[in-house]
Amino acid sequence: MEKILVVDDNQDILDVISNLLEAAGLQHTLAQSGIEALKMMETEMFPLVLSDMMMPEMDGIELLENIKASWPDTEVIIVTAHGSINTAVEAIKKGAYNYVLKPFEPEDMLNQVRKAMDYLATKKENVALKYTLESVKSSDTIIGETPQINAIMKTVAAVANTNATVLIQGESGTGKELVANAIQYSSSRRNNPFVKLACAALSESLLESELFGHEKGSFTGAIALKKGKFEIAHTGTIFLDEISEVSNAVQVKLLRVLQEREFERVGGTKTIKTDVRILAATNRNLIEEVNSGRFREDLFYRLNVIYIRVPSLRERHDDVRLLVDYFLEKYNIEIGKQVEGFTERALKCLSGYGWPGNIRELQNVVERAVVLSKGKKLDVGDLPENVRKDTGRIFVYEGSELPPLKEAKQSFEKQYLETALALHKGNITRTAAAIKLARKNLQDKMKTYNIKLASLVDARKK
C-alpha cells in the first residue's frame, strides 16, 4: 500500500493526524520539518504529502516548491489556519492538490486524503493503460502447438506471478517480446505500467537518460526534469530489449538497480527507490559475450534468474501453418481482403523454407501475398522468389543453435509422411506402396506423430 508523509513541527498535531490515518487503515510516516521530509523523500516514495503551512526553517510553500521540482507527480495537501486563506490559494496555484483549514474535523481531513488517494490511483491506472495499449498495438499472440512452445508457456505460467527477473534469448524475429507480454499480462502487475525500451536504438548517453531520467540543466538540452523508464515503471514491469547492446557504464548502473532497487537521475544526487520487475531479451549468446569481456558476468547472473530460450522458426516447422492461418486472418481484416488461404503447394513451399528472418519474415511474406492478391487462393507464384527457391531445406545452419539430430529426423519424417499422405488423398495403402513402407509401419508412425488424415485431406482440397 502507498504511504502518506505527514509533516508538522507540532508533535501534538502529528499525533492527532497519525491516529486518524491509522484508524482509517492508511500507512503513513511522520516528519517534524520540511528539511526532514525532503530527506525522507530522497530514499522512499510518497505519492501524497500532508504538510502544515507555518513551520520554522522551511514553510509549507517552500516544501511544496521543492517537492514539485523533484517529484512532480507527488500530490500535496496544505494544512493551514483560517486566517491564511490567501496563502492556501497561493499553494493551489503552485501545484498543491488542496488545502485543509485548522481546526479541522476528522472526517473532513479523511475525505480530503481519500480524494487525493483516489486521484492518484486514477492517474496510475491511466499510465498503466497507456503503456498496456502501446504494448498491445505492437504485439500479437504467441501461436504454436509444438513441444518447444508448450514448454515456454508452462514456464511463463510458473513465473508470471513471481518477481523473478527473466532473461529471454532467441534470434531476431522469433517473438521474444511476445513472451515478455505473456509474462506481464499473466502477472499480478498486469494493471500497472509495462514499459519497454529497445536498448540498441539509443546512444549510451541517451540510453542512460531514458533509463534513469535526468535533472534540469544536467546537460545541454536538458531544459526540464525528466523521469526515466525505471521511475515510470514503478510498481510495474520494465522490458529491456537487446540488453547485450548496453555499454559497460550503463551495465554498472543496471546492476545496482537489480541489486538495490535504487538509482540516481543523470546529474542528480538524490537516490530514488523503485519497485519494478525486470524482463530482458537478447539475440546473442550472453555467455559468449561474458567470455569475450563485452558483458559483465555479475550482471549476467542477476538477469539470468529465469532463462527462456525462444526457438527459431526452422526448429518448429510444424507451427508454420498455424502462423500462416493467423497472419492471413489478421491481414484480411486489416487490408479489407477476403483471401481464403494458400494452396497446398504454396503451404508446402512455406513449410520447407528456412526462415532466416523467423516469424517476422513469415509475417511479412503473408502480408505481401494478401496485399498483392488478385484471387481467393494464394499459390506458389504469390510468394517471394527467395522463398520459392529455398524450399526443401528444413534446417539451415547460420551460426545459431541447431536442434538435436534425433529431433531433426523426426521433424523431417513427420513432414515427409504428411506430404505423401496428402498427395494420395489420405489413402494409406497407396501411400505405403508409394514410399515403399509396410502399411502397418505407416499406421504406427501416424500414431507416433499424431497425423490426422481428415486435416490432410481438407488441406489438400483447399
Model regions low in confidence, pLDDT < 50 over at least 5 residues: 135-139, 392-400
Helicity, as a percent range: 40-55%
Number of strands: 16
Spatial arrangement of strands, main beta sheet: 2-1-3-4-5
What kind of sheet is the major sheet?
A: 5 strands, parallel
User: Based on CA inertia axes, which overall geometry fits?
Assistant: elongated
Average pLDDT over all residues: 86
- Rg over CA atoms, rounded to whole Å, is 30 Å
Q: What is the overall number of helices? A: 20
The fraction of residues assigned to DSSP E strands is 5-15%
Give an overview in words.
This protein has 462 residues and is of the alpha/beta class. It is 49% helix and 14% strand. The chain contains 20 helices and 16 strands. The protein has helices at 11-23, 34-43, 60-70, 85-93, 106-137, 147-159, 176-185, 204-212, 229-232, 248-260, 286-291, 297-303, 320-335, 344-352, 358-372, 385-389, 405-423, 428-434, 439-448, 453-461; strands at residues 4-7, 28-31, 48-52, 75-81, 98-102, 166-169, 194-198, 213-214, 226-227, 237-241, 262-264, 271-273, 277-282, 306-309, 341-342, 377-378. The strands form five sheets. The protein has a five-stranded parallel β-sheet, sandwiched between helices. It has a five-stranded parallel β-sheet with strand order 7-10-13-6-14. Helix 4 (85-93) links the parallel strand 4 and strand 5. It is elongated and about 100 Å long. Residues 135-139 and 392-400 have low confidence and may be disordered.
Notable traits:
462 residues; alpha/beta; five-stranded parallel β-sheet
